[in-house]
Amino acid sequence: MELSEQSVLLKIYIGEDDRADGHPLYEAIVLKAREHGLAGATVLRGPMGFGRSSRLHTAKILRLSEDLPVIIEIVDVATKIESFIEKVTQMTQSCLITVENVRVIRYGHRRPA
């Protein structure tokens, strides 16, 4: 699969405890992205953060929080990302979704000379 140099980065900010049909929401979103044929997805777990409620979520020993911040990053062309955003909004109740233009330098393995 080729990926256009001018692509889009979709970021979805959720909580680690968020669920979809009994499974972690981040897992459901990544599997849906794969099913949708998107170029790639990565889940990043944050040690600390807060959102709209200003409630602090942290991994510090004295403030145990099991609902740590999670960011799902997905890269593909704008048309595919825009189409996928509709699916994400149907799967989520509370989240932050951002989109930014990115320049893809390399996608996949190095080609032999």
Automatic annotation (TrEMBL):
Protein name (database record): Uncharacterized protein
Family recorded in the similarity comment: Belongs to the UPF0166 family.
One Pfam family recorded for the sequence: DUF190
PANTHER family: UPF0166 PROTEIN TM_0021
SUPFAM superfamilies: GlnB-like
Annotated InterPro entries: N-reg_PII-like_a/b (IPR011322), N-reg_PII/ATP_PRibTrfase_C (IPR015867), UPF0166 (IPR003793)
